[in-house]
Amino acid sequence: MTSSFEPPALGRRLTINTVVRRHQIEATRTRSLWDDESELHSAQLVERFSRAVREAIPGARLTWALSWGALTDESARYRDIRRLLAEIVRETGDDVTFVPGGFFANLYGTRDEVAADISDAVGRVTDEMGVPPRSLVAGFLSADNIARAREQGIRTVQGNIWSQFDIDLQDGDGSLAYPYYPSRHHFLVPGRGEDRVDAVQLDGWTVDLVAARSAGMSSDYNSRLGLGPIETLHRLPRADALRELEATSAAHLNDRNVERNGLGWLTVNYEISEVARGLETDAGMLDAWAGWLRWLAAEWPDLEVPTIGEFGEQWRGLHADNEDLAYLLQQEGSGIQASRAGETVTWFMTADFRLGVAEAEGRAEVFDFTAYTAEAREPVELGDRRWSLLGELNQKRTRPQDEPVPFGRFLATHQDVDASLTERYGSAPELARLRDLA
User: InterPro entries per the record (predicted)?
Assistant: First the structure.
């Protein structure tokens, strides 16, 4: 049978965001962690980064996120950066916005404190740039703060980092990887009815779906392997890095993915301080990254590069709610680190659940099943890093119950999921193949 959930067509999109900050982690307005990065920032480097993107993909538009320190510092360094960004906005249509809490705002600030930071920062950005921001770059952001940002006119939020677990300061595994409207009770859950926040929730970094089954990172693997420059170009041999960038890009931009989802979407963050660090290591690092952008444009000439805010508006124009979501994402292992050659990962993602199935050596096993129908609540205590939504099975395999289950056995004990897969994905060849292996 054919699916009753035919996706509206949006096409191929790439969103690029970057961060300008003073300290590596600006936890609150007055508390900073790790390095003072002021010396890594300059108007000259901002202009160089902007030019590198536009030369690689003419007409591309970027989203620039300023930390509280970068937004309020009155030194010549940051005044020059803000003045240049205002010029760039006028010339290119870029979006300048705020990054609250160094990606981990709710780890260190109460909901009210974070809401006040966002409100004050939106006002400052509007005054500095002459136009209000159209989005937020937030790393992780609570559902309450997304809803309150929506009241400030923010309609798109990069508010989750898909598959993040045991890396940096906060966990957030459990969401969909493509856009959705979040619940008012948990930012990782697609909202339904009155529980839906009318703000598009976006992932922060496109990662390799095979490598993402790992937890954390070591010298041998990185669960955030994918498009991130600091996970690829900064750490891998150049040929391996480019092979991984191209493999992950192709998994989303290939014709079949665009056909089945109506959308092939890549998103990447390259913080200005990391651009500086990359150039200190290798003077050709930014050129190599721009070379990947040129490759994308050559392979897929219809690829568009809007700001995060523009992309959110494009998506919401086709989706009034989450009811028609039936994402199907698939990637084969690249052979780089934990992206194991010979393994294929397929994800089914709806407003009711996400289901991950791995295929290797002629076997199909369910490694993640996260239902969105049960009540979920976010942490409320400051300092609690565990914001993940761990369902019946979770891809990170950090609990005894997370041992993968043969696909056929899973369907036999989850007949409602089996029926939903049939209804939403119909005769999709990816589903048919997994059924044949069951």
Answer: DUF3863
Give the pLDDT of residue 191.
98
**57 and 294 Cβ atoms separated by less than 8 Å:** yes
Distance between CA atoms of residues 135 and 308, nearest Å: 7
- pTM over cut 0.85: yes
Q: How far apart are CA 135 and CA 119, in angstroms?
A: 13
Q: How far is CA 342 from CA 191, 205, 249, 336, 367, in A?
A: 36, 24, 18, 12, 16
Contacts (Cβ under 8 Å, ≥6 apart) of 44? none
CA distance 176 to 160: 10
Q: What is the pLDDT of residue 6?
A: 83
Alpha carbon separation from 312 to 40, 42, 109, 304, 318 (Å, rounded): 31, 30, 26, 13, 10
CA dihedral 330, 235, 137, 155 (to 10 degrees): -20
pLDDT tens-digit readout, 255-300: 999 999 999 999 999 999 999 999 999 999 999 999 999 999 999 9
Which tokens hold the place of 109? 């600030």
Contact 180, 190 (CB under 8 A): yes
In sequence order, which residues have a C-beta less than 8 Å from that of residue 367 and are 6 or more positions away? 213, 356, 357, 358, 393, 395, 397, 402, 404
